[in-house]
């Protein structure tokens, strides 16, 4: 279903409470399929493909954080119940959610984020190019590793990747998308309107940020949580032990339980350990 070029799925649209689920880089709405199974009976779910990902690959909507946020704001306005949503963001989706919450505060009820604590180098720097090249290497691996070997690696790490999601992961141009994402996530430490710490401090809604500690830095997650608490004192940071960066694919049931508990203002499952 398009929203000026943005593909999305809408599940249980008659439910009274909307969740917007945002995937990570190189991924697609399929990333959330197994999590959605545990949420769709209780909530209206809007699950888009971010620009330059999945089915949102029109040349008219290249990926930028600001343009993506505007498209998602339009999606919430037109399709979410009462024109508001809780945003659930993984990795690139988490950074996009932070930008959205401070740019369009009237559309956002709250945030549940994961894998979006790490800092990034300055725009145009050599390190930003290196970050983009690293993402491209990951993309090339996704594209060219034999399917049987890729699935073996996923099984070893506990990640559950469907054939449909694998096809979407392999679709983007690795170098082009890697450099684009690295450029969009780069930040100027001297300008709080252009770095993730400054943007996080502007988020006024109650927010949860989580680190899958096998890949994500606990210190980075704790710092992001402190920044979000400056905007809302109820915001918190957590870690989940034994989980990878994309742990929504590793343990979709736990991911859904955490999301539901946070959205309902309930205590999170004991697997979520608060970072102080």
Q: What is the CA-based Rg, rounded?
A: 17 Å
Order of helices and strands: EEEHEHEHEHHHHHEHEHHE
Strand order, biggest sheet? 1-2-4-3-5-6-7-8-9
Classify the oligomer: single chain
Question: How is the main sheet built?
Answer: 9 strands, mixed
- The count of strands amounts to 9
Q: State the end-to-end CA separation.
A: 42 Å
Portion of residues in beta strands equals 15-25%
Uncertain ranges: none
Principal-axis shape equals: globular
Structural class, from secondary structure content? alpha/beta
Number of helices: 11
Task: Tell me about this structure.
The protein has 276 residues and is α/β, with parallel strands linked by helices. It is 43% helix and 17% strand. It has a nine-stranded mixed sheet with strand order 1-2-4-3-5-6-7-8-9, sandwiched between helices. Helix 2 packs across helix 3. The protein is globular. The chain starts with a strand and ends with a strand. The model has no long low-confidence stretch (mean pLDDT 94).
Topology:
Elements: E1 2-3, E2 6-11, E3 18-22, H1 33-39, E4 44-48, H2 65-79, E5 85-90, H3 92-103, E6 108-114, H4 126-144, H5 147-157, H6 163-170, H7 174-185, H8 196-201, E7 206-212, H9 218-231, E8 236-240, H10 247-250, H11 252-263, E9 272-274
Parallel strand pairs: 3-4, 3-5, 5-6, 6-7, 7-8
Antiparallel strand pairs: 1-2, 2-4, 8-9
Helix pairs in contact: 1-11, 2-3, 4-7
